[in-house]
Amino acid sequence: MKRTVIMMILAAFSGAPAAAGLPDLQSFGASDVAALAAAAPLPPPPVCVAERAGEDGQYAPVLDVVRSRFRLDKLAVEAGEAEVLRQTAAFKSRVSAEEAAALALRSFLEDFEDPDSPMSLTMQALAVQGAAGQKTSLVDRAGEKLFSMLNGGGAVLRLAAAGEKAGRGEDVSGSWLFSLKVPGFPGYTHWAVVNRQTGSVYNYGSFRGRLSRSHQRFI
């Protein structure tokens, strides 16, 4: 039908008679043209990236933050849609799950106040290796290195479920809790704690479940 309408329009513009078997467009009234247009099939609506990303059961807006905003295509994400909706319904939050994920990732990638944070560990390891011939600052080099580690495969960002506690005992009632595991830091679990009301965030690391520092670090 769509091809028929197009052929009729082309014939009308060129002044040539309509092909055999096709009605003459010039003899059509407005209602006839409208009926043909309504009968023509419409193209399927576009599918957004977030909807495709959410097919595995993970919450699409969080995945979109990780993939589109931070460009971390290989960072595994465990933030189930059912869990996000459960926490959203159960706990009052001014900060959405996707906003919390963005704050958590930025904290992991930039904040090195805690000595066992992923940025701090990366900076310590690079400092041991030395800075001979380096033109960029230690912070910049550590940020680039940590980003490549998160995007190198094997790293996992996970939303803590209701009932879980972070390394220092924080629970999900007052904060969105995200854990991060990086292959370059074996034995470590890193936590980002995002206040549900204010969006304030901090991160730290625990070694094999203990809040003590390890002297064996590999990146």
Features:
single chain, 219 residues, alpha+beta, 5-stranded mixed sheet, 5 strands, globular, disordered C terminus
Lay out the secondary structure.
Blueprint: H1 2-14, H2 30-39, H3 49-53, H4 60-69, E1 76-78, H5 81-90, H6 97-110, H7 118-129, H8 138-150, E2 156-159, E3 175-181, E4 188-195, E5 201-207
Parallel strand pairs: 1-2
Antiparallel strand pairs: 2-3, 3-4, 4-5
Helix pairs in contact: 4-6, 7-8
Q: Over all CA atoms, what is the radius of gyration?
A: 28 Å
How many alpha or pi helices? 8
Order of helices and strands: HHHHEHHHHEEEE
What is the distance, rounded to the nearest whole angstrom, between the alpha carbons of the first and last residues?
62 Å
Uncertain ranges: 1-30, 32-53, 212-219
How would you describe the shape? Answer: globular
Number of strands: 5
Beta-strand proportion: 5-15%
Mean pLDDT: 79
Major beta-sheet overview: 5 strands, mixed
Strand order of the largest sheet: 1-2-3-4-5
Oligomeric status: single chain
What share of residues is helical? 25-40%
Give your account of this protein's structure:
- By secondary structure, the protein is of the alpha+beta class.
- Helix content is 40%, strand content 13%.
- The protein has helices spanning 2-14, 30-39, 49-53, 60-69, 81-90, 97-110, 118-129, 138-150; strands at residues 76-78, 156-159, 175-181, 188-195, 201-207.
- Strands 1-2-3-4-5 form a 5-stranded mixed β-sheet, with helices on one face.
- Strand 3 and strand 4 (188-195) form a beta hairpin.
- It starts with a helix and ends in a 12-residue tail after the last strand.
- Residues 1-30, 32-53 and 212-219 have low confidence and may be disordered.
